TrEMBL record, chain B:
Protein name: Glutathione transport system permease protein GsiC
Organism name: Sulfitobacter dubius
Transport listed as a keyword: yes
Gene name as annotated: gsiC_3
Pfam family of the protein (one): BPD_transp_1_N
UniProt similarity note: Belongs to the binding-protein-dependent transport system permease family.
UniProt-listed InterPro entries: BPD_transp_1_N (IPR045621), MetI-like (IPR000515), MetI-like_sf (IPR035906)
Presence of the UniProt keyword Membrane in the record: yes
Membrane-traversing stretches: 126-149, 161-189, 209-227, 268-292, 312-338
Keywords: Cell membrane, Membrane, Transmembrane, Transmembrane helix, Transport
Residue span, ABC transmembrane type-1 domain: 122-331
Compartment annotation: Cell membrane
PANTHER family: INNER MEMBRANE ABC TRANSPORTER, OPPB IN A BINDING PROTEIN-DEPENDENT TRANSPORT SYSTEM
PROSITE patterns: ABC_TM1 (PS50928)
Automatic annotation (TrEMBL), chain C:
Name of this chain's protein: Oligopeptide transport system permease protein OppC
Matching Gene3D superfamilies: MetI-like
Coiled-coil region list: none
The organism of origin for this protein: Sulfitobacter dubius
TM regions (residue ranges): 47-68, 124-147, 159-178, 190-211, 242-263, 300-318
UniProtKB/TrEMBL annotation, chain D:
Name of the protein described by the UniProt record: Glutathione import ATP-binding protein GsiA
EC number(s) on file: 3.6.3.-
Coiled-coil positions: none
Top-level taxon of the source organism: Bacteria
Species of origin: Sulfitobacter dubius
Gene giving rise to this polypeptide: gsiA_2
Compartments (UniProt record): Cell inner membrane
Metal-binding among keywords: no
Membership in a protein family: Belongs to the ABC transporter superfamily.
The ABC transporter domain, residue ranges: 13-267, 306-556
Keywords attached to this entry: ATP-binding, Cell inner membrane, Cell membrane, Hydrolase, Membrane, Nucleotide-binding, Translocase, Transport
Length: 551, 345, 332, 610
């Protein structure tokens, strides 16, 4: 192949992320930008590839039930490390480092951002220098939380030994220049600005990486990043171009690079509030289970709202190639994705009929339906973002066609997605009727994602408005099925259950209206070879394989 | 003058303390959460743990007190340590280790001392924003002088027109416009500023020059608009003064009359206006820095705001407040120095 | 002295010279003050242009939406991305037509309607915020210039406001007052009040400083002492004697203030704390169109030109008004 | 007068016409003016304000162009010695620059503003020298020093390094003169060089110019509207009126046998020191054109209206770190006097001696430190702010500068009505009636009520100020240099008006002035102030006819007299610079003790600092 040769032969490669990394320790930040930047340096035992399949990195193979790496009771998983691995400083990589990584993150004072990856882990033991065993307190049908994927890479015990617990933030040097096993090492890290890297001399694969240095620029906006790759050719790779399709298409005409897209599990959805968030209610009772929503508690209304939406058009306007209309909360992987496509055709008339049926009619002729003197008016909020605002406008338009009045509201994303219990504008607090945002799940297993919709996970004043069941969906049957999923290890069975759960949230109840399965668009220069866009792991997962090619 | 300065400096300490308190409360009260950028896949319990690790659970007054101690007591110690240990000037002094093991102001985003990052950001901010300020002034002053001298001439009218247009167009428009023209269409200039670029020879200087042109020009446009207005006004005030006639009666050349006698007097208010604008340089230029990826102080503040990195926002805002108070004082002192009629006692 | 034209009768001549020694009053007959202002104003070409343009644009944004009655928020996705009518001049195949003279945006909203409606909001925000900022700035400037005791603290207060970061301030304001204002004035009205207040609360400082400087100088003028000696109360001195004499710097601040307000509003939308997303303003139209600047230059140019022309017009109008309102200049 | 008639004139102005382009079309500044200036001669150009004096002189320097003027006709012939005669009106800009400051020097009216405030005296003096004489810096400085000595500036070395504001007005004017003389010009133009100065300083400057002219033989064109100064200085006089020359002649001819009615009227309006000798009471002036008015002395009454005892006002000078008072300006020190109803007491003295402060202290516009002020039974010092406001109903003030004391942005009627509104003494239509009455009273047409101050002449403005002061029917008016800024003719009318009002309404005046001739005209009593104290106090007749204190005597000597036969010689003048009124905080001012030389005539016997 063209890219073979000695390490560092292709000079410099330049990557631009419009969000700048602030730290290179993924355990202190779970921000995507930080995790992905650090994935050039730090590596996990195994990664997900572009299809979502598990591939070994530092481990010799992925432990499974079949190969005996995972115990029958689903309570332990044993990893075997590759031989002769070296840290970039030349010291050997051992099972100790793996155990240290777990201890580091599980330290109760450290505030580890990836703690969820280590959920249920009761102990990590070093069997020998090359073997490490993770034991869970409960059976784990999906034991690939720890040490799998960009979010839980292995850090060097020697470097971080003095940085555990409360001292974690003080180790600036280590957090900015972690020693790793990945293809690159940090030369200079300027937080929130730029990282310069050089090829790791001790990288385990000969002749890789092809580039001697890597410049990782951060900051600006997606437009500028796209422009720098596709129009001016100043950069080789631009991450996550959240731009309107026509804008991206125009940039691609620049001819210096091209956009790529891939799909994962990210779904843009409408959440319909099942509780009443009216400001007339006393504080403490607003948006709580005490008061069901006066309008949206009716399934017919919810269904009508869904029917009025033309999801294909939304995709065309907002995402183009990088989106697919979907009716599912869990759009992938195939095993878990339901075949539900009912919602894809817009049916304004049907929606009108449904509303009539539900008793909402336009008695006063102002174009807005009403019932018992109450108007069919909804407050629809989302975070500030150009595409979301276009969506809001379109959906408002459709809803107005079926006689629903919509008030739009957008909130700064740092407030909207922040969990500040004092703010009334957070998405958890949901002081609105309809809310739009996107969510996904890590890796390929949707269990914990689906478990978010159990009754116990309501955000409420008692929980300081923390909680993942954003729209306050509550169904005992659903809760029971989630529990069942947690006990099931058999893949087929798990798929069945997940699909059922997905359908209960969407086409059975219409409490969540999925809109678009959002793919990822990134752009690579025409001269950059070996890029494989991966939405299941860090986008830079295979940077070691990148090389320069002739145009 | 000296006592005046010292008095004002001392008085500014309580002022600054008060300002810092107000800023602190404002930031505390403002909604927003440092966990806002953490992906939704991270469960709330983990976020809660992360918040605790940042010290968010503590009562407000303790957080404020900690910040005060860190900024006013520990950071100066760090500075002294730096001076005695590493700086070229004072390293002959015995090494001090005052700050060892003491907790500095730590950014929540980067988990590193805020001051280090600020210092790291200074060069590009000063280069770009500072140079833009200088360029703006250098362009504005002749325009102002000539507009006033040829009051209501075509030049004056055109100058007014262009500066007002320049003032009224936001940089988030001019910036991308320049990029589209000069980087995309013509391909002459880079659209992304390289902060790591080191100038060590002519070629690298040229590169630096190329990458600075656009941000500097966008910023300079605003400065030019304002300063040239002030300059024009001040010149107009002075051109009709009696001493100008005296100077002419001495047989001085018109250029000497205007450029020496009138200009010197007109510069007094303008210089103070310029001094008052200085803090803004250190404050960076949020939008322009962002458009050209200059990643100076302005961009730092913006990212910190977006990430609700309170220690960073607080410290940057406070530094800005210090500069404002300081440059207010400097403007006053400059006024006294430039105008012999003014004496502070 | 030989060439003196000698009047007919020597006695008459004497009397004439005698009278000449008396005070010479103005030769022109007195006229109404406002006539005078208008006459002076009319002489200033820039001011006339500025005034007419402002009247034009104000009328356009007030009545335009009634005449051009396409709803600015109305989507027509099938007719998106129309070009302005003039593109037909050089490109016969362009998607353009008289139904949308200035074209449509990416969601098919009519740009002319958006310009008209957006102008209404931008102008309202600009004027209100500027007016409020002027009131605050002038008040603070006058108080600190006039009352020596308050000076130090008011100026330090100014420093404080100068150093406050605007973004958290807006967010805080939205949190604290967003809900009550929304329920009182509706989502758009509430946001309007909020935005106007935030912009004006953070942009009065320059005015305050300038006014203060001028008041400090004016205070030493003899007519202020004269006013005190005839028993004028401080309040009246400020209102009747000081304020009219600082009109000129206030005018300048007003000009710059309007521009700043319109731009700040757009920057706020840009940062996501502005009006509801489907509520067009010039600033937002400009910000939204920047990404598509190459394909659809008109979408940035139209609001950009509208903002610039408005600001220019106000600037010229301010110049002219300043001259016209100053009786000293007016007399000349 | 020197005999140079056989030589050709240095400058000949022939048919000069200057136009200004204004918004209302062209305005003619001077029209068809012709006169000559001979070598070694002083030509005085007189005329009221706006008659074209400055424009003529600026035309000669070709400086009118910078003020928007244009020489539309006539020739300005200038004799350059060996280089022959040229027409300045047709010379190029570069040639003019060689002539300006070099062959023609000019002194301007306002010493306060004629110097650039931000350059040192030395820099401003050497600038012209280095330009025209190509001197090096050292040479230029040496020459500057020499010039400073020539104009008798004390400590010239130090002055060169100082800034203009650090010099007193007199010194500044001397610097301007030195600058004009620097290159030994053939012609010196002095445009009202002493108008803004104190009598004593004026006398010095006039003597200085006279001496310099004699020593260097320079021709001088001297512009003034002060006939007394003309009498002191001129060889020949040119009288201008409305942009035209109306009369020309030797100084004696003009003063003794004026031909033109304008000249006659002008001379009649000039108060001459000594005119009132022998008259116990003041009386209005006899002006041409109003001879039919009967002239009656103003007697007043012998009841005390205002009595001031031991009034002391000091301004603290703060310094040091804690801004404590380190020193005091002893502006008014132990002042005692009283004013009778319907009579006038004048305070005279040099600039800075505390006259204004005394006046303001009585009104409590500045807070006095101690003393008693009793106005018609009201103890002014004991009043609180509210009562003080009410007390001001009875005492009003007229200020020096009629332009500065009126709000430029308000219509006159409103300004006059303001005190009435303030105290709500009248309501509704009565106010209008009262204003109309006041306008009639001060002889202003009612049509002026809707005008703005800038539309009026100086005298008219001062009438408005007087009307405002009268609006509340006060008992006492403090007139702080109320006529100093006015033209002689106008000054005379305003003075007459004030005296008429006094006679009619039994007003009492505290008249503050530095003009002895005016004071002689208007006062019943006179107090001579020096360094914050009254050095001599008594009836006007006694003080003027029999001055006792050495300072009073010196002051009287300095006053120029409008009579060319009574010129003062430089030898008569003997002034010491005024010592500083600033004393450290610890300084204890001694009380003033007076000796009664005659009944009611007191002279300070303790140290006055003079
Ligand atoms: N810059 C100018 N623009 C228009 N008119 C002017 C200008 N300068 C002078 N004039 C006019 O020229 C005439 C003569 O003015 P000039 O200054 O010579 O008077 P003056 O005799 O010097 O009076 P003063 O005693 O007040 O100095 C006046 O009527 C004045 O209105
Ligand atoms: N507000 C003040 N603060 C400090 N010193 C002052 C103040 N006002 C006046 N003085 C000083 O007090 C002294 C007397 O001033 P004042 O104005 O009374 O003199 P004057 O006789 O009226 O002089 P002029 O004839 O110049 O008006 C001067 O030395 C002056 O500098
Ligand atoms: Mg003059
Ligand atoms: Mg005075």
């Amino acid at each position: 192949e063209a890219h073979e040769g000695e390490r560092g032969r292709d000079g410099e490669v330049k990557v631009i992320y419009w969000q700048a990394p602030s730290i290179l320790n993924p355990y202190l930040s779970s921000g995507t930008k930080d995790v992905e930047a650090s994935s050039l340096v730090l590596e996990p035992l195994g990664r997900y590839d572009e299809t979502g399949a598990l591939v070994p990195y530092l481990a010799t193979e992925i432990p499974t039930l079949e190969n005996g790496g995972v115990s029958e009771d689903l309570k332990t998983i044993t990893w075997k490390l590759k031989d002769g691995l070296l840290w970039s400083d030349g010291t050997p990589f051992t099972a100790n480092d793996v155990k240290f990584t777990a201890d580091y993150c599980m330290n109760p004072e450290g505030g580890c951002a990836q703690l969820a990856k280590f959920e249920g882990v009761s102990s990590v033991e070093v069997i020998d220098d090359q073997t490490v065993k993770v034991t869970f307190s409960e059976p784990m049908p999906n034991p690939y939380g720890p040490f799998m994927g960009g979010q839980s890479p292995i850090i060097q015990a020697a470097q971080f030994a003095d940085c555990t617990g409360a001292k974690a933030p003080e180790c600036t040097e280590a957090n900015f220049n972690p020693i790793g096993t990945g293809p690159f090492t940090v030369t200079e890290f300027r937080p929130n600005d730029v990282i310069t890297m050089a090829a790791n001399e001790n990288f385990r694969e000969a002749g890789k990486p092809a580039f001697a240095t890597l410049t990782f620029k951060g900051g600006g906006d997606a437009t500028a990043a796209g422009r720098a790759v596709m129009e001016t050719g100043e950069f080789d790779y631009a991450w996550n171009l959240q731009l309107a399709p026509d804008v991206i298409a125009k940039m691609a005409e620049g001819g210096k690079g091209k956009p790529m897209s891939a799909f994962g599990t990210l779904v843009e959805r409408l959440e319909l509030n099942m509780t009443d968030a009216s400001p007339d209610l006393p504080e403490g009772e607003r948006a709580t289970a005490k008061h069901p929503h006066p309008i949206l508690s009716d399934e017919k209304v919810r269904r009508a709202l869904s029917m009025a939406i033309d999801r294909e058009l939304l995709v065309e306007v907002g995402y183009g190639q990088a989106g697919r209309a979907t009716c599912n909360m869990v759009p992938a992987p195939e095993l878990y994705a339901s075949d539900n496509t009912d919602c894809l055709t817009q049916d304004i008339e049907g929606a009108k009929a449904l509303l009539d049926e539900a008793g909402w009619t336009d008695t006063d002729g102002d174009g807005v339906r009403d019932k018992d003197g109450e108007k069919l008016a909804l407050l629809y909020q989302t975070s500030t973002n150009a595409v979301r605002q276009d969506f809001q406008a379109l959906i408002k338009d459709w809803w107005s066609q079926i006689g629903v009045e919509t008030e739009l509201r957008n909130i700064d994303s740092s407030v909207f997605f922040g969990g500040d219990p004092g703010s009334t504008d957070t998405f958890q607090r949901f002081y609105a009727d309809v809310e739009m945002y996107a969510n996904n799940f890590d890796g390929t297993d949707p269990q914990s994602y689906l478990a978010q919709r159990t009754c116990a996970k309501f955000p409420s004043p008692e929980t300081q408005w923390q909680g993942e069941n954003i729209n306050r969906f509550c169904n005992e049957e659903y809760d029971a099925m989630v529990a069942e999923l947690g006990r099931t290890g058999e893949m087929e069975k798990r798929g069945e259950l997940a699909k059922k759960l997905n359908d209960m949230l969407t086409k059975d109840s219409y409490s969540i209206l999925p809109l678009v399965d959002r793919g990822r668009v990134s752009a690579a220069s025409n001269t950059l070879g070996g890029v494989v866009l991966n939405t299941w792991d860090s986008e830079l997962w295979n940077a070691a394989d990148w090389y320069r090619m002739e145009e | 003058m000296l006592t005046f300065t010292i008095r004002r400096l001392l008085l500014s300490i309580p002022t600054l303390l008060f300002i810092s308190l107000v800023i602190f409360l404002l930031l505390q009260l403002a909604p927003g959460d440092p966990m806002a950028q953490v992906p939704l896949t991270v469960p709330p319990e983990v976020k809660e743990k992360m918040r605790e690790a940042l010290g968010l659970g503590q009562p407000i007054y303790i957080q404020y007190w900690k910040w005060l101690v860190q900024v006013f007591w520990i950071e100066p110690q760090v500075f002294i340590d730096y001076l005695t240990n590493r700086s070229a000037l004072f390293s002959w002094l015995p090494d001090t280790n005052l700050s060892d093991g003491k907790l500095r102001v730590i950014s929540w985003q980067t988990r590193s001392p805020v001051m280090d990052i600020v210092i790291q950001r200074m060069p590009q901010t000063l280069w770009v924003v500072g140079l833009a300020y200088i360029v703006g002034i250098v362009i504005a002053i002749p325009i102002g002088i000539y507009s006033a001298y040829r009051h209501y001439s075509v030049f004056d009218q055109a100058g007014t027109f262009i500066t007002m247009v320049g003032f009224s167009i936001p940089p988030f428009f001019t910036g991308p416009l320049l990029i589209v023209i000069f980087s995309v269409t013509l391909g002459w200039l880079p659209s992304i500023y390289d902060t790591t670029h080191v100038v060590n020879d002519w070629a690298s200087f040229k590169v630096q020059f190329m990458q600075m042109i656009m941000p500097v020009m966008v910023l300079a446009l605003q400065t030019t608009a304002q300063i040239s207005r002030y300059m024009r006004g001040a010149m107009l005030d002075n051109l009709n003064q009696d001493y100008v006639r005296t100077a002419r009666a001495k047989g001085l050349k018109e250029s000497v009359v205007v450029m020496v006698h009138v200009l010197r007097n007109s510069m007094i208010p303008v210089v103070t206006i310029i001094a008052l604008g200085m803090p803004a340089i250190f404050g960076g230029a949020i939008i322009t820095e962002n458009v050209f990826k200059v990643n100076g102080i302005g961009q730092l503040l913006l990212t910190a705001l977006r990430a609700n990195d309170l220690p960073m926002v607080m410290t940057l805002t406070f530094i800005f407040a210090v500069l404002i108070v300081l440059f207010n004082l400097i403007a006053d002192i400059l006024y006294g120095l430039l105008d012999p009629r003014i004496r502070y006692d | 002295m030989t060439e003196q034209p000698i009047p007919a009768s020597p006695v008459e001549a004497d009397l004439e010279f005698m009278k000449a020694l008396q005070d010479k009053g103005p030769q022109k007959p007195p006229r109404s003050q406002w006539r005078d202002v208008w006459d002076q104003f009319r002489k200033h070409k820039g001011a006339l242009f500025g005034g007419s343009f402002l009247i034009f644009i104000t009328l356009a944004v007030i009545f335009g939406p009634y005449i051009w009655d396409i709803d600015a928020k109305k989507l027509d996705i099938r007719n998106k991305d129309w070009r302005p009518i003039y593109t037909l001049l050089w490109d016969g195949d362009a998607k353009a037509g008289w139904i949308h003279p200035l074209g449509t945006d990416q969601l098919g909203r009519d740009i002319l309607a958006q310009m008209l409606f957006g102008g209404r909001v931008s102008m309202a925000v600009g004027w209100m915020a500027m007016a409020l900022a002027l009131v605050i700035g002038t008040a603070i400037g006058v108080l600190s210039g006039f009352f020596k005791r308050m000076d130090f603290w008011l100026m330090r207060f100014t420093d404080l406001i100068l150093s406050l970061p605007i973004l958290p301030l807006v967010l805080l304001a939205v949190t604290l007052f967003g809900q009550p204002l929304r329920s009182q004035f509706g989502p758009e009205g509430g946001m309007f009040i909020l935005i106007v207040s935030v912009i004006s609360l953070t942009s009065w400082m320059q005015t305050a400083r300038i006014v203060r400087g001028d008041i400090l100088a004016l205070k030493e003028r003899e007519f202020i002492l004269a006013a005190r000696s005839i028993g004028t109360t401080p309040g009246k001195i400020i209102r009747r004697h000081l304020l009219p004499n600082v009109i000129s710097p206030i005018m300048v601040s007003a000009t710059l203030g309007l521009a700043t307000a319109i731009i700040t509003e757009s920057a706020l939308s840009f940062l996501g704390v502005g009006f509801p997303s489907d509520f067009p303003t010039w600033g937002k139209q400009l910000a939204d169109a920047v990404d598509r600047m190459q394909e659809f230059p008109e979408r940035v140019m139209l609001p950009g030109i509208a903002i610039s022309l408005t600001v220019l017009a106000v600037n010229y109008l301010g110049d002219g008004l300043r001259d016209a309102l100053d009786p000293r200049i007016r007399g000349r | 007068m020197l005999d140079h008639t056989n030589e050709a004139p240095i400058a000949q102005i022939q048919g000069l016409r200057v136009e200004f382009q204004t918004k209302d079309g062209p305005v003619v500044g001077v029209e068809d003016v012709s006169f000559d200036i001979n070598p070694g001669e002083t030509v005085c150009v007189v005329g009221e304000s706006g008659s074209g004096k400055s424009v003529s002189s600026l035309s000669l320097m070709r400086l009118v162009e910078y003020g928007g003027g244009e020489i539309a006709g006539g020739r300005l012939l200038f004799e350059r010695g060996e280089k022959g005669q040229i027409d300045l009106a047709a010379s190029s800009g570069s040639l003019m620059r060689k002539i300006r400051g070099n062959e023609i020097g000019m002194i301007f009216q306002e010493p306060m503003t004629a110097l650039n405030p931000v350059f040192t005296i030395g820099k401003q003096m050497t600038e012209g020298l280095r330009l025209h004489l190509n001197l090096t810096r050292q040479e230029a400085e040496a020459r500057a020093l020499e010039l400073m000595r020539q104009v008798r500036i004390p400590e010239p070395e130090r002055r060169l390094k100082q800034y203009p504001h650090e010099l007193s007005g007199g010194m500044r004017q001397r610097v301007v003169i030195a600058m004009a003389l620097a290159c030994e010009p053939r012609l010196l133009i002095a445009d009202e060089p002493t108008t803004a100065l104190d009598v004593t300083i004026q006398a010095e400057i006039l003597a200085l110019m006279d001496r310099l002219k004699r020593e260097t033989g320079t021709a001088v064109m001297f512009i003034t509207h002060d006939m007394a100064v003309v009498a002191q200085m001129a060889d020949r006089v040119v009288v201008m009126f409305r942009g035209k020359k109306v009369e020309e002649g030797t100084v004696e001819e003009i003063f003794e046998n004026p031909q033109h009615p304008y000249t006659k009227a002008l001379l009649a309006a000039v108060p001459k020191l000594g005119e009132m000798t022998g008259k116990p009471y003041p009386e209005p002036m006899k002006l041409l054109g109003s001879e039919d008015k009967e002239i009656l002395p103003i007697k007043g009454r012998d009841e005390v209206l205002l009595s001031v005892k031991n009034l002391t006002t000091r301004f603290p000078v703060q310094g040091g770190f804690l801004r404590r008072t380190v020193a005091n300006v002893h502006a008014v020190e132990d002042l005692s006097f009283s004013i009778n109803k319907g009579q006038t007491l004048s305070l005279v003295g040099e600039s800075g001696c505390g006259k204004s402060t005394a006046g303001r202290s009585i009104l409590r516009l500045v807070e006095p430190m101690s003393g008693e002020v009793n106005l018609d039974g009201v103890d002014v010092m004991a009043l609180d702010q509210k009562a003080l406001r009410t007390a001001r109903l009875d005492m009003q003030m007229i200020f020096q500068d009629p332009f500065a004391s009126l709000n430029p942005q308000m219509q006159l009627a409103d300004q006059v009505a303001e005190p009435i509104h303030n105290f709500a003494t009248l309501k509704g239509a009565e106010i209008t009636k009262r204003i109309e009455m006041l306008f009639d009273r001060v002889e202003l047409p009612r049509s002026f009520m809707r005008r703005f101050p800038h539309e009026l002449s100086g005298g008219q403005r001062q009438r408005v100020a007087i009307a405002r002061a009268l609006a509340l029917n006060p008992k006492l008016i403090i007139a702080d240099e109320a006529v100093s800024a006015l033209d002689v003719s106008v000054q005379a009318q305003v003075l007459n008006l004030m005296m008429e009002l006094q006679a009619e309404m039994e007003l009492s005046f505290l008249f503050i002035s530095h003009d002895m001739a005016v004071v002689e005209r208007v006062s019943h009593y006179v107090g001579v102030m020096y360094l914050g104290r009254i050095v001599e106090l008594g009836s006007r007749q006694r003080v003027f006819e029999n001055p006792q204190h050495p300072y009073t005597q010196a002051l009287m000597k300095a006053v120029p007299i409008a009579d060319p036969r009574r010129r003062k010689s430089e030898k008569d003048l003997n002034f010491k610079p005024i010592p500083s009124p600033i004393h450290p905080a610890s300084y204890l001012a001694e009380p003033s003790t007076y000796r009664e030389v005659e009944p009611g005539h007191h002279v300070l016997i303790t140290d006055s600092g003079y």
